[in-house]
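User: My instructor asked us to take a sequence, write out its structure as tokens, and then describe one feature of it. I'm not sure where to start. Here is the sequence I was given:
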Amino acid sequence: MTATTAEAARRPRSLNDVKGWFPSLDQVLFDFFLRRQERLGEHGDLLEMGAYMGKSAIFTAAYLRAGERFTVCDLFDAEDAPDENNAAEARKSYSTLTRTAFEQNYLAFHDTLPHILQGTTSIVPGHVDDDTCRFVHVDASHLYEHVESDIIAARDVLLPGGIVVLDDFRSEHTPGVAAAAWEAVFNRGLRPICLTTQKLYGMWGDPGPIQEEMLADDEWRRGMHTSRQEIAGSRVLRFSGKPKNPAAPRSRYADDAPASAPAPKAGRAPAAPAPAGAPRRPGQVRRLAADVLPPVVTRAIRKRRRA
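Assistant: Let's start with the prediction itself. The structure tokens for your sequence are:
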């Protein structure tokens, strides 16, 4: 069966075609942490809490290895929210999100879907065992109470040395995330590794060896600005810039021709503009007079013409 033009237009031909907020800087950092785990032989599952249309999930799934499981938890539909605050947030920020759209985007890049939990992230502890994950991306609710619980869940499911990524930890419109993130740093033992414009990368362990690797690799940091901060006696790296994206998963529709734009409806074609200096037709003159002359003059001209 041939896909309709509308269906073809929705097919992502590259990761950039998938709606979402996942800039090149964070793609480079995801790639660094996930490749480092592979290089060191660190095995474990992957978890994403909050998926939107699947952009970061599609990217993360490329690093899944045999015997590992990738779990994605998202509410997907606002009407299933457990409280009105959560439902209002979903209606405002994610009104176009559906599970079907996520699955279609994901399957454009991967052969099988991840393990999907449809519901609030409060259900994660009942489906993901403690000490099983090596990488957790937290990008669900922006409400303090929910983010606090998500960070605790991430701590519990992470293996020793595992990485947690907290999205929107400093955005103007997400103060609840900032409060929960820094509370985890000061009261729950979370150690920041590095910061970007959107995300905080951290772990429950010593970030020093990872930071030293980052600072020693000048080639990897090409296109990035690096600064060193100190927070409560601990070093934190800050990265900014727009480095070149690492290789993203390839869409099965990458070689498809772009969907053609719909043909214009039949009807009178718009009149071409008159050449400069060409005389104006009477109708054009009357419209121009109505636009630029004072109303009293326009009324006098019309009255004279009717007489």
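For the description part of your assignment, you could build on this observation: Confidence is low (pLDDT under 50) at residues 89-95, 288-292. Try explaining in your own words what that tells you about the chain.
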